[in-house]
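To whoever is on call:

I kicked off a structure prediction for a single chain this morning and the downstream step that reads the tokens threw a length-mismatch warning. I double-checked the sequence; it's 129 residues and nothing unusual in it as far as I can see. Pasting both halves so you can look.
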Amino acid sequence: MNTIVGKDTIITGTLDIKGALRVDGTVKGKIICSDCVTLGATGHVEADIEANTAIVAGHMVGNIQTSEKIELQAKCEMDGDIQTKSLVIEQGAVFCGACNMKDSKPDLGFLPKPAEQPEPLVTSKKNLE
């Protein structure tokens, strides 16, 4: 574990961590981590997370994008969208959001792509008579 955000600590802004991160306090903003982000049971995150893996046991509001795995533990509350290759949701976890598990280049936008519009049907007046 390279970085620990303690229980009574509040951080606002962007965290760019090389190695693993554990959050037992509060983080608001954005988290970029080269390894595993662990949100402890007392942790509260209002941020988007980009990491290799993520383990959520506390309260999370925001989107998570990982290249490998996301684990939502039994007492967690997750409100946001996730994108990952592998997802584990333990019984008792609360997850409200969308999940994308396609093996493609990650896109944190999580916005639906606009639907293609069909070509308008051209009908002459002659055909309608």
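Update from on-call: the warning came from a stale cache, not from the record. Cleared it. Sanity check on the structure: The longest helix spans residues 125-128.
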